[in-house]
Design a protein that fits this description.
The complex is a heterotrimer of chains A (351), B (86) and C (342).
Chain A lengths: L3 H26 L24 H8 L7 E4 L4 H7 L3 H8 L23 E3 L7 H13 L6 E6 L6 H12 L4 E7 L2 E2 L2 E2 H4 L16 E4 L4 H16 L5 E6 L17 H9 L2 H11 L4 H24 L40
Parallel strand pairs in A: 1-2, 1-3, 3-4, 4-8, 7-8
Antiparallel strand pairs in A: 5-6
Helix pairs in contact in A: 1-2, 1-3, 1-10, 1-11, 2-3, 2-8, 4-11, 5-6
Chain B lengths: L4 E6 L12 E7 L6 E2 L4 E7 L2 E6 L4 E6 L6 E3 L3 E7 L1
Antiparallel strand pairs in B: 1-8, 2-4, 2-7, 3-6, 4-5, 6-8
Chain C lengths: L12 E2 L1 H15 L3 E5 L15 H9 E3 L4 H13 L3 E8 L3 H12 L2 H4 L9 E6 L14 H6 L4 E3 L4 H13 L4 E6 L16 E2 L13 E4 L4 E5 L2 H15 L4 E5 L2 E3 L3 H11 L1 E9 L4 H13 L5 E7 L8 H7 L3 H10 L3
Parallel strand pairs in C: 2-3, 2-4, 4-5, 5-7, 6-7, 10-11, 10-13, 13-14
Antiparallel strand pairs in C: 1-8, 6-12, 9-11
Helix pairs in contact in C: 1-7, 3-4, 8-12, 9-10
The complex binds thiamine diphosphate (TPP).
């Protein structure tokens, strides 16, 4: 049994993430109707929303501390929220503002918050190796922090993922790989790109434990992740976890989804993990008013983050040139000591 | 005029089936006013709710008038162009 | 424009994506051995419309969606090509090249040479390039210079529908590997409106455009602007504005980087004496330096003034003011031309 207070935290994460995506969708479409021009409206660039993925992020991140590392893919908002990334600054980043997490340089697919050890990559599966590296650092330093790499099921045929499984396994590193299986990789259904329906089976080939949570049930994810994160924290090596989630929206905003059967979209919308968790809250004796209040507080937090973000200044164009390196270009020195080297022609004394 | 028929090309005839939206935009014209077209030639491309639809010539003839230009918005039932059927 | 004289002017216009697709479809009809592999190329029709409509005619066997495994499917294209087929493999964004680069530059590009030309690799690697829509550092690069730098692959960068079709025919029929880099902003996609220019009249029949033949897209006497891809259109726009101030700019569209048509550039510079090179790739060690170096080597005497304009050696930032700062704009081209006098 998951404690009532945990259920409440998970519910809060989930409604925050869901409402966040719904609000971003609205903001993103501002100025994009009827003509959908990707360059119009207040939010720049592409936008991959994660409505339907919430149970996986919250169920896993409940077991994480700020010093645990999380890497997320191109669809990162729900994971960032569950990991405790600063919501205001993340939102400002998504709106491309100066006070954003990355001063407007990274954007929605590239959120970095070192305060809570959160990072992203927009390149499929490429967040896995750095997560392995975070696990390696923890092991070398004898710390009990862990690393979690989130990916989509589309990433399980990628070398960076498979190589990471192997490296984490052979080095017994404290890493949990979490596959969010939403059945689709853009327009490609899983069965067209892999013969293995349950990707947690990939673990077997690397002699590590693998488990699949077959429904996007936050408490089932919570239980599975408890074991996986616990194993990593105790120094017993990596785990591969797959969680069934659902894609309630298009792959990205502007995806006409012409490839997707109507029934599939409808089924995704009907399977609501948030409602499922709400009934668990009720079963745990939490009153409806309290549930509504959790929901309202979450909505208020999102609304105020968006309002704050939209009020933030645009970056100064000149800022584009900074931040390529953190240190001086010349390295740690600007001078070169001279050494007498045998046969060194530069040192020759006739000049 | 004798021997020719004016055929209006109506957006309602090509509206994507599952679109809820009643507005769209012309994304591309592939022919210009005065051009001869064959039946089935793609005349233009419109976008409704992010879905692109090719509009083809219902008959051979001359494209006598483009009513909605590239980037113009329109509503369901608006006329895109007029074809003088040969 | 390097178009053939024909009795009747062609007035059917196509977007660049439709022109590319028309060439691919023609080649697939003519040769059973041509097939297309990539992510979201079948049912989706290519994220940037690069394969729109092909699935309906050719089916999933020849328009193949592949797993997100760039190393495996690009490498498989190399293998199928060496077996004599004519695969086209699509890398959805050029920025993803890192994932499959070994297959591209150590296998595809080198197997011919390493085998003493006993093996050849007749494949096309198509890929989307470019920014201007705030997709940030991992989805906005052109990387023209990277591919052109490594020997063993031809590198094609069309800027109009007319060129796109003729170059695609030539690419698929080529017995050597060709990297075909199409700029997203030029494709004519509904959700990413193209500038005026890439949509052109396109003949229905097939035709080939030779590689290594740059196209003078606008003739001028005072200054030569050498560029490619999206920036051909920005340069033409700049030239029209400059013309109002009495500066007559010639715009040379490279069309292919490998082989490079140095001759056309030299002829133009011999006439104008002034060279501006505009590129959407990083400034250092890239296309702009290469063009300037070639002119300097071959005809230093004609070269009175030089300027180059490119992305200033920073990753492409996300926010609009930042991205606009680093990608050369029409105004920047005008400034560069003015800065070297006339
Ligand atoms: C190496 C690489 N190849 C292709 C892409 C383009 N791409 C972005 S998201 C995506 C689909 C990913 O599917 P999945 O991993 O299942 O995650 P989902 O989007 O469904 O959450 C693809 C192919 C990419 N970003 N990186």
């Amino acid at each position: 049994m998951v404690q009532a207070s945990k259920l409440q935290t998970m519910f809060t994460d989930m409604v925050t993430a869901r409402y966040y995506e719904e609000r971003l969708q609205e903001e993103y479409l501002e100025g994009k109707q009827p003509a959908f021009d990707i360059s119009a409206g207040p939010i720049p660039g592409e936008l991959h929303l994660a409505a339907g993925h919430e149970a996986s992020a919250t169920g896993v991140c409940q077991h994480l501390r700020d010093d645990d590392t999380v890497t997320a893919p191109h669809r990162p908002h729900h994971i960032a929220i569950a990991k405790g990334v600063d919501l205001n600054r993340m939102t400002a980043e998504i709106f491309g503002r100066e006070t954003g997490l990355s001063k407007g340089k990274g954007g929605h697919m590239h959120l970095f918050d070192p305060e809570v050890n959160f990072a992203c990559s927009g390149i499929i599966a490429e967040g896995c190796p750095p997560a392995v590296g975070a696990g390696l650092a923890a092991k070398k330093r004898n710390e009990d922090s862990v690393a979690v790499a989130f990916i989509g099921e589309g990433a399980v045929s990628q070398g960076a993922f498979l190589e990471s499984l192997n490296l984490a396994s052979v080095q017994d590193l404290p890493v949990v790989f979490v596959i969010e299986d939403n059945d689709w990789a853009i327009s490609m259904p899983k069965d067209r790109v892999t013969d293995v329906a349950d990707a947690s089976q990939r673990a077997g080939g690397f002699d590590m434990p693998g488990e699949r949570v077959d429904s996007d049930d936050a408490t089932a994810v919570y239980d599975a992740a408890k074991e996986a994160v616990g194993r990593a924290r105790d120094g017993n090596g990596p785990t591969l976890l797959e969680v069934q989630v659902h894609r309630r929206m298009g792959h990205f905003m502007g995806d006409p989804e012409s490839y997707r059967p109507e029934e599939d979209s409808a089924a995704a919308k009907n399977r609501d993990s948030i409602e499922r968790l709400a009934s668990e809250l009720r079963a745990a004796g939490i009153e409806d008013e309290e549930i509504d209040e959790l929901r309202e507080n979450a909505h208020d937090r999102v609304d105020s983050a968006i309002e704050w973000a939209k009020d933030q200044p645009q970056p100064d164009p000149e800022d584009a040139y900074g931040d390529v390196f953190v240190g001086p270009e010349s390295g740690v020195t600007t001078t070169e000591t001279t050494h007498e080297l045998a046969g060194d022609t530069r040192a020759g004394g006739d000049d | 005029m004798s021997g020719t028929d004016r055929l209006e090309i109506n957006t309602a005839d090509v509206w994507p089936e599952d679109a809820d939206e009643d507005e769209g935009v012309v994304t591309n014209w592939f022919t210009s006013e005065g051009s001869q077209v064959e039946e089935g030639d793609t005349l233009c491309e419109i976008q409704v709710e992010k879905v692109s639809v090719d509009v083809s010539a219902p008959a051979a003839g001359t494209l006598s008038e483009i009513v909605r230009d590239e980037d113009d918005e329109f509503e369901r039932g608006d006329i895109l162009a007029v074809l003088e059927v040969a | 424009m390097a178009q053939q004289d024909s009795a009747q002017a062609i007035d059917r216009e196509l977007t660049m994506s439709r022109a590319m697709v028309e060439a691919i479809a023609d080649e697939m009809r003519a040769d059973e051995e041509v097939f297309y592999m990539g992510e979201d190329v079948a049912d989706y029709g290519g994220i940037f419309d690069s394969t729109q409509g092909l699935l309906e005619e050719f089916g999933h066997d020849r328009i193949m969606d592949v797993p997100i495994s760039e190393t495996a499917y690009i490498g498989a294209a190399v293998g199928a090509a060496q077996a004599g087929m004519r695969p086209i493999a699509e890398l959805m964004f050029v920025d993803f090249f890192g994932v499959g680069m070994d297959q591209i530059y150590n296998q595809m590009a080198k197997n011919t040479y390493m085998s003493g030309a006993s093996v050849n690799v007749p494949m096309v690697l198509t890929t989307a390039v470019g920014g201007t829509y705030n997709d940030a550092a991992q989805h906005s690069q052109t990387l023209y210079g990277t591919f052109a730098h490594l020997p063993g692959m031809k590198v094609v960068v069309p800027s109009t529908a007319y060129d796109a079709k003729g170059l695609m025919h030539n690419a698929i029929r080529d017995d050597d590997p060709v990297v075909y880099m199409f700029h997203k902003r030029l494709m004519g996609i509904g959700w990413m409106p193209a500038p005026d220019g890439p949509k052109t009249p396109v003949p229905e029949e097939e035709y080939t455009i030779p590689f290594g033949s740059a196209d003078v897209k606008r003739e001028g006497e005072d200054v030569t602007v050498v560029t490619l891809g999206l920036h051909v259109h920005r340069a033409i726009e700049a030239a029209e504005d400059l013309a109002e101030d009495g500066i007559d700019a010639e715009v040379v569209d490279l069309r292919t980087l490998v082989p490079l048509d140095t001759e056309t550039i030299l002829e133009s510079v011999a006439k104008t004496g002034r060279l501006v090179v505009v590129d959407e790739d990083y400034r250092s060690y890239g296309v702009t330096s290469e063009i300037v170096a070639r002119v300097a080597e071959e005809d230093l005497a004609s070269l009175e003034a030089v300027s180059r304009l490119a992305v200033p050696d920073v990753p492409i930032p996300y926010a609009r003011p930042l991205e606009n700062e680093v990608i050369p704009a029409t105004e920047d081209i005008k400034d560069a031309v003015r800065s070297i006098g006339s």
